[in-house]
Design brief:
8 helices; 3-stranded antiparallel sheet; 73% helix; 2 domains
Length: 184
């Protein structure tokens, strides 16, 4: 059965975007298909709909389950595995953000801390390099702390903060201007 044009377009575009985000195109397309699906789908259904090899679908499903973006669900009267995507956008965003943090940010923080420890004992490391490493560590640690705070907020609170964005930026901009004129 052919996909509606809008669904087909979304699946293709989501696949292209996935490539830009460092995600395999097939993984992103399967996620898009399951996200818009009205009912759970089998790997065979997915393979047929997207024209992908069954092995590719199986590997992609494992990756999506690892990211907690899809889950295996039972379907009465059918012994095959069926899959559905996380439908809650905030939960989906949280899973992606948490997964990226664990795979990318946490190792970077650990690596930076090792570099700082090595730099502390090495007299050949310049003051400039040491200072910049400390600034980078402070920055990354601040972002990591902020992420930890944001991830615990209720979606409605987070959405209110996001909608306040430009007003907060304007307030901070005005605050900076006032502070700058006081120090001039």
């Amino acid at each position: 059965m052919a996909l509606p044009k809008a669904v087909e377009h979304f699946v293709l575009q989501w696949g292209d975007l996935g490539g830009q985000w460092g995600v395999n195109r097939s993984v992103a397309q399967i996620h898009a298909l399951l996200f818009l699906a009205e009912r759970p789908m089998t790997a065979e259904d997915i393979s047929t709909q997207l024209g992908l090899a069954r092995s590719n679908v199986s590997n992609s499903i494992r990756e999506l389950i690892g990211w907690k973006l899809i889950r295996r669900v039972p379907v009465f009267g059918d012994r095959r595995d069926h899959y559905e995507a996380e439908g809650d956008l905030w939960q989906m965003l949280t899973c992606i953000a948490q997964g990226r943090k664990e795979r990318e940010i946490d190792p970077a923080i650990a690596s930076l801390r090792q570099v700082l420890a090595l730099a502390a004992d090495d007299p050949k490391v310049s003051k400039v390099a040491r200072s910049r490493l400390h600034e980078l560590n402070d920055f990354v640690t601040t972002l990591d702390t902020w992420f930890g705070q944001m991830i615990t907020l209720q979606p409605s609170t987070l959405m209110r903060l996001i909608r306040l964005g430009s007003r907060v930026a304007n307030l901070l901009g005005a605050g900076r201007k006032a502070l700058k004129t006081e120090t001039d």
